[in-house]
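Work Package 3 (structural annotation) set out to generate three-dimensional models for the target panel prioritized at the project kickoff. During this period the team completed the workflow that converts sequence records into discrete structure tokens, so that structures can be stored uniformly alongside our sequence database. As a representative example, we reproduce one entry of 145 residues exactly as it appears in the project archive.
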Amino acid sequence: MPNARELLAVKSRSGVFTVSAESSIGDACRLMRESRVGCLVVGDSQNITGIITERDVINRVVAEQRDAVTTRVRDVMTKDVLFIKPDRPIDEIEAIMKQQRIRHLPVVDETGLLGLLSIGDVLAWHAARDKQTVEHLTEYIYGRH
């Protein structure tokens, strides 16, 4: 069973996009749109103070009719961030995401932030594994080697 480090290694997009807690929500949303991501880590690779997601923006800015120009990321970000270590197995990562109802998990070690895993990354791994299983079974059934 692969772990968080292995999932990060096979992601199609590497790197984590970060934003300052002092940035406006408008700036954070533009960065998400330009980067084509649904989540930004608040802080930097050594000091993570939160996460801001599309869902945070919808629930805490749009639904509350706040101004995206004057509202700061620090005012609406998720502050209690769960982190995982790089050796955490994928089945545990998936269980955490389901139990906590979260879509993004930062991967950290003693050096800092290594990457960010999303539920999409977990699903992509499952899809690739299932495709490989089907190919092996097809070869077995039809005798192709």
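The chain has a mean pLDDT of 90.
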